[in-house]
Amino acid sequence: MTRLRSRLEENLGWVVLLALVVGCLVVLRPFVSALLWAVVLSFASWPIYRRLLRWLGNQRTLAAALMTLGMVLILLLPFLIVGLSLADNVREITLDRRGAARAPQVADQDAGRWGQGGGLLAKPGR
Fold it and tell me: Cα separation of 33 and 100, whole Å?
């Protein structure tokens, strides 16, 4: 009886462990892409980290902080530049649209002058 109970507890332990592993994988599934990128970037930047570590006199915390700051700048700087450029373009588009909204009023004023022989075409040298 003791042997049967021991065997049952062992099998139940494996089932619980398997359920725990499956649950962890389900939770981590959305982050697999980010984790793979982290592995690639860590592997690719390891020689730079080792060189920086040697240059800083084996100060691991400082080397890790500088590497982190460098990675953040390398990865986020292009997004910052694109964002600022996009903000400038939105401002220009907004100003153009405001100008286009006022354009019919200006055109009406110019149309009156054109009928009287005025306007850009009637004046040579412009």
Answer: 46
Q: Convert 64-95 to b/e letters by CB count within 10 Å (16 or more is b).
A: eebbeeeeeeeeeeeeeeeeeeeeeeeeeeee
Confidence of residue 97 (pLDDT cuts 50, 70, 90): confident
Q: pLDDT for 76-88, tens place per residue?
A: 999 989 888 888 8
User: Which long-range contacts link 68-75 to residues 24+ away (Cβ below 8 Å)?
Assistant: 71/41, 71/45
- Per-residue model confidence as pLDDT tens digits over 31-51: 999 999 999 999 999 999 999
**Residue 18 and residue 14: Cα distance in Å, rounded?**
6
The two most distant CA atoms of the chain are separated, in Å, by: 115
Domains of the chain: which residue ranges? 2-27+45-111
Sign of the Cα torsion 75, 81, 87, 90 reads negative
